[in-house]
Amino acid sequence: MRNDAIGVFDSGMGGLTAVKELNAILPQENIIYFGDTARIPYGSRSPETIMRYAREDVAFLRQHAVKMIIAACGTVSSVVGDRPFVTDLPFTGVVLPAAETACRITKNGRIGIIGTPATVRSGSYEKAIHKLRPEVAVISQACPLFVHLVENGYTDFRNPVTRLVAEEYLEPVRKEGVDTLILGCTHYPVIREVIADLMGPEVQLISSGAEAAKYARRCLEARDLLSDRKGPGENTYYVSDSTEMFIENAGHFLHQDVVGKVFRCSL
User: Is 95 within 8 Å of 118 (Cβ atoms)?
Assistant: First the structure.
């Protein structure tokens, strides 16, 4: 089982930020990624619909030999909360790993959260943070247009549309004096430079996808499930919509061209 793949799913391509980190810290592992690109975004759906989509995504990954599943989607992770629906395999979302890191590094006890409307409505990050550090102040802000901007390639640091939207979303959080900001959607690290520029150098940014990947490594180590493969692992990608569009845009998340096979599938 230790040479089975790590399964990763997301509503679209944002989960590739977790894949990028997994490739960096666990280069010997095979990764199977499913992006539900035909039904993005999840963040504007009802909790019932999000859970149905998530169960279907997990069922697809289970058709392959996987030893762990990562819900690399802030919306799914927030709706699932601390009641994971995968119990027979190691499983993580992105909320708890990011919350743990934020609680560890904040100096002034003021943590900002930006995410999809569903993530913010759920209050999942606040619950996770306050379970660890009840005294911390949490300031949340929904950023519904960020996913659309990223998925459509509006990612350049100088793009006036992206900067205008980001300024409106981030100003209330910045005014609250946070020193730590959780990027609570795995799409957001793609426009990290814009966010960092507007928040200022004194604010530390936390990528929820990257923190989930680090948590996965610790989890597999603890269970003696790290691959003993001698050579590098492989990435295999499945999407529910156009493979061409996926390949074209995935480079923004991976910071390189897609290396691996890409297939279209239906759930």
Answer: no
